[in-house]
Each structure stands twice: as C-alpha cells, then as structure tokens.
Give the backbone structure.
Amino acid sequence: MRAKIVATGSYVPERVLTNSDLEKMVDTSDEWIRERTGIRERRIADEKEAASDLACEAAKAAFKRTDIKAKDIDLVIVATVTGDMPFPATACHLQHKLGLKKAAAFDVNAACSGFLYGLSIADSFIRNGSHKRVLVVGAEILSRITDWEDRSTCVLFGDGSGAAILEATNEDRGIISTHLGSDGGMWELLNMPGGGSRHPASKDSIKKRLHYIKMKGNETFKIAVRTLESLVKKSLDENKLKPSQLSLLIPHQANLRIIQATAERLGIPMDKVFVNLDKYGNTSAASIPIALDEAFRQGRIRDGDYLLLEAFGGGLTWASVLIKW
C-alpha cells in the first residue's frame, strides 16, 4: 500500500510586490535582490485574508481536478508557521470551510519543511491503513511576520498556499520514501522569538520587534547547501536511483543560489530543477506545493516520472519525499 498524489492545487494573493516597490520602502535595489536571491517579486495577502482562506482556495483548486469529494477526506493536515491563531489549528478552520465533516484535522510546524513533513505523516497513515484519503496543505502569510524595516529579510518572503490530495493505492506509483531530519541546536539561525511562552506578547516584546522573522543568512546558506546535498544523496542511494533517473527536482524556493549550488554538487542540470522563486519569493511551507502544482500544470510531470521534493528550514529542519508519479 502506498500513498499516491491524485490532485494538486495552489493559490496566491492578487497583490504583487516587486523589487522596485521595495526600493521605495528600504535601502535596497532590484539588482541587489536579484543577484543575491533570484527573486523579482512576491505576493502579499489582503488584510482580510488569513492562512485558512489561502489554504481553502488551494484545496478547492485541487478538488476540481479529481473525482474525490470533500466527504471522502479522512484527514486534513496543514503545514504553516503563520496560522490563523495560536489555537485552534488552522486545519480545523480549513476543515470547517470545506465541510469535511468526518475528517480529523491538525497542523504541522516544521517551517519551510512543513509540507514535506505533512506528506510523510499522510503517507504513514495511509500505509498503516488508518486513513484512505488525506488533504495536505501548505499555507503561509509571511508578510504578517516580516520586518519591513530589515532590508536583509524583508526582500525574501511572500504569501501563498498549495495543496495535495493523497489516496491509497496498490499501484507501482506514489510516495516511495520520505526522509526527515532536524537539529534544534541551531534554532537561532532562523526563528521568530515573540508570541510564545518564552516571550509572550507585551509592550516590551513589541518594542524589541520580537514578533518578526530573525535570520542569520550566511550561516543558514552554508548549512542548507551541505545538508540538502547529503539529503538528496541519501534519498537516492536508499532507493538505488541515480540523479540522472530523476525527471524533476522540486526544491524549497528559498534562494536561487542555494538551489543552483545543490544541483551543481549533485550533477543535476538546472533544466531538471523546477524554479518559480522569481515570482513568489520564499513562501515557507507553501513553496513546494505551489511549485508542484505549477510543474504539473505546465506539463513537466508525466506518468512514471521520478520526482524528488526537498526542503530545509527553521528548526533547523529538513526533509525529502521521493515520488513515482
């Protein structure tokens, strides 16, 4: 028994924030941003939109591409670090919006690796027979926790959502293997310190700007490239596959230089790597499902293709999912 992705969907807000727009907000330039990140623009959610709203639109898009109905879903998993509220889970809000009456629902917080953690959990539940159909969504509104006065981080992030519907199958396709990892000793490299039990909301926490993303970019970059190289090799070696057998590598869309460096170290040509970072920036847990959906709609994924999804994020966390489409 395997878990097979039977449909994907994605949604991004209408508002576009370009690098030129950012030039008017902070001391930066379009050229500086493009050279260091590969990002040209990103999407920003409307003030009235919450993460569950974006998740709902992505899920609806996925349901339109399959015969599976809302009543058939057994489980809803939402990967996010920018949920509607601390509790209840954003997945519960999404379950209600979609009318998934019989589905259990919970969130996963693994930052940029969250969607792949969600796929791994869904795969495990389907393999053990406890669930037959699972909706996994990555949804983020990072613009709400972006420090628009910090030019080193505000150029990176955007908002969006992507979804996948998984179903049990006995066919020779679906999720082949998943690999998850983390190192909590390096949490300080990428975090948002305010809002939890360590630094609850207060006048002092607001004054110190603790409710915004903090990142040590150079250190994170170096560790990400090394970790992702090792992760991809492990994923392929354990399944007796060579990089040349991959039809498409879909990485977390964080930084073009990280993506290029990882591909080069693995000997994977860039025409086999899916990149949409230039349009959306880093959307954390939403980046891979958005990319997966776009790759499918562009005809870059066909039956029998081997796909590898890989991510690295705050925690630190990392994950990979190998799929035979």
